[in-house]
Every structure is written in C-alpha cells, then in structure tokens.
Amino acid sequence: MAEIRNYTMNFGPQHPAAHGVLRLVLEMDGETVVRADPHVGLLHRATEKLAESKPYNQSIGYLDRLDYMSMMCNEHAYVRAIEELLGIEPPPRAQWIRTMFDEITRFSNHLLWIASCGIDLGAMTVFLYAFREREMVMDMYEAVSGARMHAAYYRPGGVYRDLPENMPPYRESRWTKGKDLKRRNEWREGSLLDFIEEFAKDVDSKIDEYETLLTNNRIWKQRTVGIGVVSPDKALQMGCTGVMLRGSGVEWDLRKKQPYAMYDQVDFDVPLGVSGDCYDRYLVRVEEMRQSAKIILQCVDWLKKNPGHVMLKNFKVIPPTREEMKDDMEALIHHFKLFTEGFCVPAGETYAAVEAPKGEFGCYLVSDGANKPFRVHFRAPGFAHLSGINEMARGHMLADTVAIISTLDLVFGEVDR
Amino acid sequence: MNEPVKPLSELLTDRFDDRVSLGNSLSGILAVEVETGAWLEVCRALRDDEEFSFEQLTDLCGVDYLSYGESEWETDSASTEGFGRGVEGEGPGRFDWAGRPREEDIKRRYGVVVHLLSLKHNRRLRIRCFAPDEGMPIVPSLVEIWSSANWYEREAFDLFGIVFEGHPDLRRILTDYGFTGHPFRKDFPLIGNVAVRYDSEKKRVIYEPVEIEPRVGVPRVLRKDSRYNTDEFDQAADDAAEKVAANNTAAGGQEN
Q1: How far apart are CA B99 and CA B86, in angstroms?
Q2: With the CA atoms of A118, A122, A128 and A133 taken in that order, what torsion angle do they form, in degrees rounded to the nearest 10?
Q3: How far are the Cα atoms of A50, A339, A343, A350, B31 from residue B217, in angstroms, in the given order?
Q4: How confident is the model at residue B155 (pLDDT cuts 50, 70, 90)?
C-alpha cells in the first residue's frame, strides 16, 4: 500500500481570503487540516514603540491605523486611558458624540465584515450591497473629521470639533446627474445629524436585503453551520472577546457590564449565539448592526436637543482656539507649550478597554510623568482570536478554514500592530 | 466593577500573605505585584478559587523599566544660558545600535504585566512580576493556566527577550524571520539596525545597515507639578473665552 504522508502548504500571505497579510502554514492530510500555524507580523510597525517616542496627542493618528476598519473605537480606548491618568472627564456632548461614532464605526466594521466574508464564501452580491451603505458611513467620517478613514477625531478632553451644520452634497458631474444626483442628495439637505438620522432609520431595510441574500441561503448555511465551533469555556480560555465570545453564548459586553461614555444611558440589546459556530457569529453581527442603528438614533435625538461644548476648557491639556490664542497672553503661552512640548501626564498606570466591533480593544498605559508615554500596550482582539485558530481549524477542510478566518474578523493592522 | 475594590485587596492579602504586595488602584483595577517564585501558584489560585475566579487572561505584556523617570530637559530651574537646559537624553530615538547605552545591572528591569478578567464578579485585576535576573530574564509561563497567554508570551519574548519557562512553543512572532535583538527594549534604537530593500542587480531582497540618523523632534520632559485638576486654570480658559466673546460683541457681533 502506498504510504500517504501529510504535506505542508502556505496559505497566504498573498491570498485574498487571508484578510491582509496572514501567512498560514497548514499541515494537511489530504484536504483536512491537521495543524494550522499562523505566521503574523508581516505588518508589524512597532506602533507601541513609536508612541513611546512622541507626545501623547501625536500618537492618536497611529491608533486609526491599527484596526483600520474601526478607527474611532481604537482612538476611544487610547484617549480614555489618557483621560483616566489625567483625571479629566470630557463634557457630556463629547461623550454622546463618541457613543454615536463608536456605533457608526461598529456599523461600518460589520458592513465590511459581511461584505468580505460574503466574498470569501462566494456571495459576491452582498459585497456590492454593503459597500453602497459603507460609502455613506465614510461620508459621515469625512464630514466630521475631514478624513474618510483615519479620522483622529477623538482627543483627550473631548472630540476635535462639533458636528457640522451642513452635510456636503454631491455636485453635478458627468457620472452623477439628474435623477441620480437628486436621489443621492436627498438626505443631504440638512445637518450631519439629519443625514445620520435618515440613514439610521432606513438601514433596517438595507440589513433585510443582506439577510435575504444570506440568512436562509442554502449554500451560505452549508459553508457556515457547524464550522469552527467554539465552546463557551474554550472561548474564555483562548481570550476571545466581543462577537467571538457572544457567538458562543457567553453574555459579556463591556458596553453593558463596564459601561463607558454614555452607554449606560442608551437602550439596546446584546444578541447572543447558541452553538458558537460561524453561522451564529454571522447572526450576532447582523443583529448588532440593527442594535447599532438603534443606539445611533438615540444619540442623534440627544445631540439635537442639547448643544454645548465638545471639548473641555482646560488649557493645560486642550489647546486654546486660534481666536483665543491671538487675543490672550495666557492662551498664547499655553498654545506654544502644548504644540512644542505637549502635556505631561501624572505618573501611574491604567488600562482602558472599549467594546470595539471586533472585541475588547484595550490600552495599557504607563506614564512616568513625562510628556510621552513610558510604555503603551494595545490589547488587540484579533491577536487573541487568531492565536486560537489551530484549535478551531483542526479537523476541518481547507475551504472551511477560509470561513473560520473570515468570521474571526481579523484585520492585520491590529494583530501585528 | 460592581463591588468596591477593597474586598478584593483584602481577599488577596488573606489568601497569599507576603507573596503578593498590593499596589494602587486606578479606575477600579487593582494592581498587585507577585513574587516571581509564587507566580504560577498565585495565578492558579486566581483562576480556580471561587472568590477570585478570573476566567480570562485578557492581556499580557512585557515592560522594560530601564530609564524610567528620566528626563531630557531640565525644567526645575531656569538657566541664563539659553538652550543650556537640554541634557543628554538616552531615549530610544537618540542613539543607533553602536552607540546604545550599556547599563550596569539595574534591579527589576523587566516586568511582566498581566490583566485578568473575572466575568463572574465583573472585576479586573492587574498582576505583575519581575524577572529576577536582568541578564537572562526568565519568568514562569502561564500557558498551562490560561491558553491565551501563549501568543502574548511569544510577543513579550520577541519584543523584550523575556524567556517564559515552560512555554511549549517560544518562537518569535512579530519581528522578521532571522531578526536579531529585542526591539522594544529601551536600549534598542528607534531607527533599528538594518534596512531592507530590493536590489535590482542581485535580483533579490537585501539587508543593509540603516543609513538614517537618530532624531528626536520633541524632547522628553518630566513635570512633576501635576496641575491638571486646578480650577484656577479652568478659570483662565473661561476668562479668555469671555474676553473673546466680549470683543466680538464690541465689534458689532461680527463673526471673527
């Protein structure tokens, strides 16, 4: 009888289903995975070391580039850590804006997830549908921060500026004109909040569209039901957080259990999975999108009624406005000091975590009293999830590995940091 | 964080006596230092004991305490010599590999910091231990207790050179294949050692010594006068805002 030996194959790093630069070394027995050994670090940029060499505020931009699908949630963790060490608390309006944009971010992350997961498993149309909505989310980012993705919008002490009064409309061009232009600009007559409100009201019907394509789709279920099952105990052992944990039926959501920003004042439900397979994780994410829309509407409602400051007034941390700076000597001195030296954070250490779309994103910050962090460590959810892939993929077929990687919701910006 | 932090600290001292020493607690997370010899024993108890039941290891990272609290800029007294207040800093952006500072043994240089989470009690805990030998930092591995420690320990080994005794698979994880050194140590230069590029003549990727110069934009400054909570400065900010508002009204309410 011929001897059949296992063979080793490389999955990635240049593979569209590897979601970036994952090199997965698979030991295969025929088409069955015997062992999966992920090689990560191809996107390692030493963000933490770079942050040690810069004043606190200058690192906010790096945070956007960690998990580049949920930019503002990363910023939120970092900014919260700094605020805790400084002992300051941003004004309520800023907290509400943060809550709203955290949810907008979660929505956009899950949109991209459903799009790319669909493509990985052969459902092309979902991708086109999801990107239609994602474009509008990008517009919200752009309206508020000037950048479509890397916003750097959250700052210690609040958010960079208040929500704009106008939502920029599309201009007429060769590609956008006539009825099409009118349709696109329909929601853009009023302020950004109006736009967000219209969007969030409408979005349930859009999610229904994705669901008609996937939820009862026979091929989709064949690819995901019973694949990559994680038991609740195992999920805790492996350090799973977020959807990976809730998909397995563990009721744990930092927004409910350790609320931050204004999450204790909004009403929403936390969806749970039952069996912990890829299909449950899909269902949980879809329901989370609906819940996000619900939270966004509550935030819009509050923000419309309550104008106010979005930044603390504290010159030691927050730079004065340009107008103040030109008019007042104190303000000028503070402005100069803040932009040449930055602010010093009292010595101490803290850990601030947020419920990022992918799981718990934490920031461990050590300060020795300087204007730069002494050590900062980012706890990325994807890192812990990927480390468990050997356990999840073992015994599955090669094609199922794709489904597992996909529903882990990995982004290598945060895994490699 | 539903319960106050105090009971946990009492529980810990009752259970472990002098093997742990309590640190401060900020934002509801108690920091505890554990003797390296008792590291495994304490961690096992933290996971298994009913009163602690920390089911999850959320985070583990290394910290290099070299140059902790060192400033690059004298701020205590003004000098008459202009820029004479700058001091020779040794921050990671200031030197290259050849000129890296060689430290004589400093005690308690490498620490391992672990964040634990108890879902049952909704509580977090930060535990820390120091590697006893600075030349060859060795700390027992927690993989047996929480399997999520696996990659975190690989990361700490890769970046800080902390060896985790008993780790099943202690390989580098984030740095390049064949990388030398441990880049997150404070005596590792920020610019690195080698640069990589594609050589069109040799038709392959080659490694070369870095050409860039170390450079620091903003010096590291320590200010111990913690001034952030004072109402005085809030007042200054309010005054400035009021002044601007008053000017605007005086100018006939013109915008800017």
Answers
A1: 19
A2: -10
A3: 12, 12, 15, 26, 34
A4: very high
User: What gap in Å lies between CA A162 and CA A12, rounded to an integer?
Assistant: 43
CA distance B128 to A375: 14
**Angle at CA of residue A66, ends A364 and A289, nearest 5°:** 100
Asked if A185 and A98 count as a contact pair (C-beta separation under 8 A), the reply is no
For residue A252, list chain B residues with Cβ-Cβ distance below 8 A: 119
Task: Give the distance, in angstroms, between the CA of residue A77 and the centroid of all CA atoms in the same chain.
Answer: 11
What residues have CB less than 8 Å from B167, skipping those under 6 apart?
Answer: B141, B143, B150, B153, B154, B157
Position B195 in a domain: yes
- Of B56, B220, B234, which has the smallest distance from its Cβ to A372's Cβ? B220
Which residues of chain B neighbour A49 with C-beta distances below 8 Å? Answer: 92, 183-184, 190
Chain A: nearest CA to B17, how far in angstroms?
24
pLDDT confidence of residue A103:
92
Out of A87, A347, A370, whose CB is closest to B71? A370
Instruction: List A residues 240-279 in contact with B (Cβ-Cβ < 8 A).
Output: 241, 250, 252, 257-258
B interface test, pick of A368, A386, A392 with most B CB neighbours within 10 Å: A368
CATH number at residue B102: 3.30.460.80
Is A331's Cβ below 8 Å from some Cβ in B?
A: yes
**Domain membership flag for residue B220:** no
Q: Render A373-396 in DSSP notation, one character per residue.
A: -SEEEEE-HHHHHHHTHHHHHTTS
Among A254, A258, A333, the residue to mutate for chain B (most B Cβ within 10 A): A258
Instruction: Let me know if residue B250 belongs to a domain.
Output: no
Instruction: Give the model confidence (pLDDT) of A258-272 as tens digits.
Output: 888 889 899 999 999
More confident residue, A2 or B36: B36
B110-144 pLDDT tens trace: 899 999 999 888 888 899 888 887 778 889 999 98
Distances from the Cα of A64 to the Cα of A69, A232, A397, B144, angstroms: 9, 31, 35, 34
Q: Do A377 and B224 touch (CB under 8 A)?
A: no
Which run of H or of E encompasses A155?
strand A154-155
d(CA A333, CA B122): 45
With beta carbons under 8 A apart, name residues in chain A contacting B233. Answer: 314-316
ipTM, two decimals = 0.86
Let me know if residue B245 belongs to a domain: no
Pairing relation of β-strands A154-155 and A158-159? antiparallel
Binary contact (B244, A328; C-beta < 8 A): yes
Q: Which of residues 148-207 of A touch B (CB under 8 A)?
A: none
> Quick one: pLDDT at residue B120?
86
Q: Are A245 and A388 in contact, with CB atoms under 8 Å apart? A: no
Distance of residue B120 Cα from the nearest chain A Cα, in angstroms = 10
B174 CA: distance to closest CA in chain A (Å) = 4
Rg (CA), chain B: 25
What Rg, from alpha-carbon coordinates, does chain A have?
A: 23
Nearest to A155 by CA among A308, A318, A19, A326: A318
pTM summary value: 0.87
The answer to whether A357 and A73 have CB atoms below 8 angstroms apart is: yes
Domain tally, chain B: 1
Domain that holds residue B182: 8-68+87-209
**Sequential DSSP letters for A223-272:** HHTTSS---HHHHHHTT--THHHHTTT----HHHHS--TTGGGS------
Q: Which residues of A fall within a CB distance of 8 Å from B242?
A: none
